[in-house]
Amino acid sequence: MYCWTLLSGNTADVPILMGVTDDLAAAMRVCEQPLEAGQAFLGYIEAVRPAMSVHSLDPCYVRTGRSWTGRATSSRQVRWEERDEHSGPPLPLP
User: Fold this and answer.
1) Which pLDDT value is given to residue 7?
2) pTM of the model
3) Residue 43 and residue 72 in contact, taking contact as beta carbons nearer than 8 Å
4) Burial class (CB within 10 angstroms; exposed 0-12, middle 13-18, buried 19+) of 12
């Protein structure tokens, strides 16, 4: 699953659009149109997995550590950067 968010660039503003999908390519396509048009400053997609909240047993999503950040280039094309917080060097054991 993938949660996606489009941001305006103003930290005081609420996100322009948000959504959840099971298709990474679809999430990127939805984000790219407003980015290319200049309606959004940043697209953020995060891989998640379904889970249940410990306190209430309500359904929720848990982050997996993989994310994609998309920004429009000067030629109005979107460039995506993938990040994986688990791909760094292993941490030493205490």
Assistant:
1) 94
2) 0.81
3) no
4) exposed
Tens-place pLDDT, residues 30-52: 999 999 999 999 999 999 998 88
Residue 13 inside a domain? The answer is yes
Overall domain count for the chain? 1
| Integer CA distances (angstroms), 73 to 35, 56, 63, 79, in order | 9, 43, 28, 7
Q: Return the exposure string of 17-31: e unless at least 16 CB atoms fall within 10 Å of the residue's CB, then b.
A: eeeebeeeeebbebb
Q: Which structural domain, as residue segments, surrounds residue 23?
A: 2-84
Examine the pLDDT at 18 and tell me if it is beyond 80: yes
Two structure tokens written together for 46: 């995060």
